[in-house]
């Protein structure tokens, strides 16, 4: 446990749900842990005890990726963990594959609706039927990353071959949905849950807060051990997501300090205000490092060793490139860096 993490508290200690089992973390709130085929090898999903128009059952929050082994684990949960009750609805915090990948399958299995923000629903709908990469592979991603200094031909070839990366993990999205907006109150069982919008990580991420239980389902907006990925990708190449993210997490500060945070990765924890401050300070420090490095012209690829000290695989490199560009763009839009395109077609940033 690092110094920052030691300032947080894990009420359940090192306890984790075993495959196809659940752990109750608050009254009527159960924790599921599903595998991911990446270095970040798991996602946390949630079951909320529900009652809709007199029908007892469960709300599912986030779904895992579209893989047969995850479907099989879900089937075991349906058979053994629901007390013989049905799933009544599905909520997805945002459109990333580990959250929405099996939403359509679960919704069809139970004949229930999907709740989601419009921006993330539409993005997921588009990307799941898109074959040009949708941000993480394909020809447009290759051109985008190459323009930011990634010129390793093997890496670019692998990126080009990932044109169905998103659709491979999200094979389909429900044909209709129920829109969630910031500040909505959703009655789930005996409790009201308020939606809290977040930007920067996903187009329109929705966290869920229950005042009665003092529980925040934070999705990917607030994680205990790792920093939320904030990236610039080819689909919005001039975006400036980092300030959006920092403003978004500040919106959690009015919540009670003893709120139990249920993150999508890592373990449930308390220490909300501490973690928000840690993330704010982390990005301030990284911005200062990037600004110092840009005393001479730097591409995104040049900045990678400034921000990431460890060896990166291809999957990690795409997110690292996206995140490094996000820091460069934050400084560029703040007027601290200039941006030029060299004769080699590479974009470089320099201190003003």
Automatic annotation (TrEMBL):
Residues 42-265 form the Metallo-beta-lactamase domain. Pfam families: B_lactamase-like_C, Lactamase_B. Signal peptide: none annotated. Gene3D superfamilies: Ribonuclease Z/Hydroxyacylglutathione hydrolase-like, Winged helix-like DNA-binding domain superfamily/Winged helix DNA-binding domain. GO terms for molecular function: hydrolase activity. Keywords: Hydrolase. SMART domains: Lactamase_B (SM00849). Transmembrane segments: none annotated. This is Glyoxylase-like metal-dependent hydrolase (Beta-lactamase superfamily II).
